[in-house]
Each structure stands twice: as structure tokens, then as C-alpha cells.
Design brief:
Radius of gyration: 38 Å
Distance between the termini: 122 Å
Strand content: 15-25%
Order of helices and strands: HEHEHEEHEEHHEHEHEEEHHHHHHEEEEE
Helix content: 40-55%
Oligomer: single chain
Shape: elongated
């Protein structure tokens, strides 16, 4: 009995020794502060909501001390901004919105995103503000609608900036009323942000020991020497993020429409049509995000109608040339007439090059169609005219002949003498399902 008790004690000691090897590192790791980093670059897109949500979830799972949002944006949709602000405010982990890298901006909607975090930070040479609302095409909105929109934005901004002081509230209201922008140092002086940091390491050093309120509870931030946990975008998020580039959207739109037209001109397949639908769906998604002038779509539609007409009723390229001109004008109006700061513009060289490429493609299709119209019929009964064969059943004047690998009922042309089995014949014409033939005169060499 004593021996069994000793063996049990030894087993428990050995088990405790091994478990301590696993538990100790976990405890040591939990003592190290952790910061989850989410990077949001470019205009606001629906992808940001899912990306930020993944960042918040990971911060909770990792028991992180804070969530850092590295922000660089020219702004975007008010609806998307409100959704992102709500996500940040609901985060159970302290959120630091850091305008980074140097020279970055938190313009328009980005201003309210900075204010929604418990801590606002900026890198040197970065800017914030210019939050006046504009239409989707970059145009000034109507006076009444403008006043309503501004008042709603100002109310939201005041509620976010009140804890930062009167100067901060004044500055953010001016950013909405008169599109005023501020540098990092000006924003810090006004209390609009809390920190100006050169990089993430310096930011973590300045954050350490600060007390913030998270869902009405005071939390002391531990950040010095924190390990950074970046939240990488998924493949789908990276693809959708590319659609904020008008050059990419223009290429997708051009190839997609061309693929659909190829499917219409040669029905029966599915590859061109499927590719066209996918590319157009991606292009429409991008057009919904980018500031565009929808009047350009009219010129693009006219261009492709002209291309189709030149295929169906060939005019030797005249309609295709007019279509190319309409296509180039439509693309430039669509993307480059709407001017919103921070949004890139489509390359003029790309538009002209793509227009010429599409024009040459359709011109080649037109030439193929014209050539096909001029070719003689080479299929069906009509193609038998001029073919040679031999008599299977005596022709006098009716009988059976073998032509083009098949046996046909046949009749001799008027005035032709009867032909015996095996004699060669030549088809003169086809009448219904009967061939009209004559004797084939063989030439002696």
C-alpha cells in the first residue's frame, strides 16, 4: 500500500513538472502587453467594416491591451463613416486611431474616425480636417441639403469632441463648415488629438500609463514594449481594395462589356459571357465607391451600340471609328470630371490605348463578317453544285448517283444521253432533294 502511494506521488510530481513547462511560458506571455494593429488606407470602402471587425475580434481573443488603427484616407461615404464610428465606439478594447505614415491624411470622414477612438494620434507632416460634405461626383450639394447634412455631421462631431475641450469642438466644426484642415501640431494644440508620434514604437511609449474610458469603465493602458499583432487583409479584401483605383475599374469595365458583346455576337458559348458578367460586377462595385460623373456612361453606351451596329450592318469601320471617339470621351467624363481630393484619376494614355484596342478588335470582327458574307456556301445541299460523283443506278433520265459520300436521287439535264452505272457525273444544281447532273467530260492528257 505504501509502495503504491509513493508511486502515485512520483507520478504527480513528474506530471506537475511537465505542466509547469507549458504553463510558465503562457503566464510570461500574458504579462507582455499586446497591441492589435489594423491598417486602413485609401477611400472608405465596405471592406473596411469587415476588416475592422476582424481586428476587434482578434483583440478580444488575444486579450490585447489596445487596438491601433493606422489611418490614411481622403474620406468617403457618410453611411460607411457612421458604421465604422459605431464599431470603434462599441469596441471592448481601447482604440487608438493613428494617422500614419508621415504625410498621411485623415480628411473628411477620416476626421470623425480619429475622434471616435479613445486616443487620437498623428504622425508629423500629417493632416486632418476638410470635412465639408460633397456629392458623389465631388460637386457642391444644394443649399438646403447641404445645411441639413452639415448640421447632422456637426452634431456627431461635437458629441465625439466634447471631452477634448472647446477648442477641439471649434476646430472640427470649422472643418465641416468651411473645409478647414489642420496639421498634426495644430490639432495637438487645439486638443483635437492626444499624441504626435514619429512611429509606432514612439506611440506605444507615449500611450503607456494613460487612463481612458471604455464603455464607462476606466482602463489603464499598458503599452510599453508591447508585441504588435497585425491584422492582415484577406485575399478578397485585397481584391476589393484595388477597386478604388479608377484605372483598374476602367479596365474591368472595358473588358467586361467587350466580353458580353462577343457573347451576343456569337451566342452558344458561355466562357466570354461568364467572364464579362464577373468583370462587370466588380466594375459596378468600384463605380459605387469612386466619385464618378454618370453622364459618361451615356457616351460609353453609345460607343458599344455603334460597335454592335458595325458588326450587324458593316460600314467598313466608319461606325467603329465613331464608337472609339465616344468611348474615349465617355471614359474621361466618367472618371476625370468628378474631382474629389485624394481620389486618383484615370490615366488618359490608358483610356486612349484601350479605346484604340477595342476599336481595332471590333474592326477585325467587322472585316471577318464581310469576308464571310462574300464566301460561297460550303455546307448543306447548296454546296453540292459543282461537285463530282458517279452513277449508282442507271440515269435515263432519272436514277441514283453517289456524290459527297452519299447517294442522291438525280436527273439528267435536258438533252443529255442516258448514263450507265459507274459513269462519272457533275452536279449542275440542286432542286429540292434531287440533283440535276450531266456527264463529266474527262480530259485526256
Amino acid at each position: 500500500m505504501k509502495k503504491q502511494t509513493l508511486l502515485t506521488l512520483k507520478f504527480l510530481l513528474i506530471l506537475a513538472f511537465f505542466l509547469s513547462g507549458f504553463i510558465a511560458p503562457a503566464q510570461a506571455q500574458s504579462d507582455t502587453p499586446a497591441a492589435v494593429v489594423v491598417t486602413l488606407q485609401g477611400p472608405l470602402t465596405p471592406v473596411w467594416t469587415s476588416h475592422l471587425n476582424r481586428g476587434i475580434d482578434q483583440a478580444v481573443k488575444q486579450n490585447a491591451d489596445l487596438l491601433i488603427i493606422e489611418l490614411n484616407t481622403p474620406g468617403g461615404s457618410v453611411d460607411l463613416m457612421n458604421s465604422l464610428v459605431q464599431q470603434i465606439l462599441a469596441s471592448p478594447v481601447p482604440v487608438v486611431v493613428y494617422v500614419s505614415p508621415r504625410g498621411a491624411m485623415a480628411a473628411s470622414a477620416g476626421t470623425l474616425l480619429v475622434l471616435s477612438g479613445q486616443i487620437g494620434a498623428m504622425s508629423p507632416e500629417s493632416s486632418i480636417g476638410a470635412a465639408s460634405p460633397v456629392g458623389m461626383q465631388g460637386e457642391n450639394i444644394e443649399t438646403t441639403l447641404e445645411e441639413k447634412t452639415k448640421e447632422i455631421l456637426k452634431a456627431s462631431a461635437r458629441s465625439l469632441a466634447e471631452r477634448r475641450g472647446a477648442d477641439a469642438v471649434t476646430l472640427v466644426e470649422e472643418a465641416i463648415d468651411s473645409a478647414k484642415a489642420a496639421s498634426a501640431s495644430e490639432a495637438l494644440q487645439a486638443g483635437l488629438i492626444d499624441i504626435v508620434a514619429l512611429n509606432t514604437d514612439e506611440l506605444l511609449g507615449q500611450l503607456d500609463g494613460r487612463t481612458v474610458k471604455v464603455n464607462s469603465a476606466e482602463v489603464v493602458i499598458r503599452s510599453r514594449g508591447a508585441r504588435l499583432i497585425p491584422v492582415e487583409p484577406t485575399l478578397i479584401e485585397e481584391v476589393l481594395a484595388m477597386l478604388t483605383n479608377p484605372n483598374i475599374v476602367f479596365i474591368l469595365l472595358s473588358i467586361g462589356v467587350q466580353a458580353i458583346l462577343i457573347e451576343f455576337s456569337s451566342p452558344g458559348g458561355w466562357v466570354a459571357g461568364t467572364i464579362g458578367v464577373i468583370l462587370l460586377a466588380l466594375a459596378v462595385y468600384g463605380l459605387g465607391i469612386l466619385p464618378v460623373n454618370w453622364f459618361g456612361i451615356v457616351f460609353l453606351l453609345i460607343a458599344f451600340i455603334l460597335f454592335i451596329l458595325d458588326i450587324k450592318a458593316p460600314t467598313h469601320g466608319a461606325l467603329t471609328a465613331a464608337g472609339v471617339a465616344s468611348f474615349i470621351a465617355g471614359a474621361l467624363i466618367l472618371f476625370n470630371s468628378a474631382r474629389v481630393p485624394g481620389f486618383p484619376r484615370v490615366s488618359v494614355g490608358l483610356v486612349i490605348g484601350m479605346g484604340l484596342f477595342i476599336g481595332l478588335t471590333f474592326f477585325a470582327v467587322v472585316m471577318i463578317a464581310i469576308r464571310a458574307l462574300k464566301k460561297p456556301i460550303i455546307t448543306g445541299r447548296e454546296s453540292l453544285a459543282g461537285r463530282e460523283g458517279y452513277v449508282v443506278l442507271r440515269l435515263d433520265p432519272n436514277g441514283i448517283v453517289h456524290v459527297a459520300g452519299e447517294q442522291w436521287s438525280a436527273s439528267l439535264v435536258a438533252g443529255e444521253k442516258p448514263l450507265r452505272q459507274g459513269e462519272k457525273v457533275k452536279v449542275e444544281r440542286v432542286e429540292g432533294v434531287r440533283l440535276i447532273v450531266r456527264r463529266l467530260e474527262e480530259t485526256n492528257h
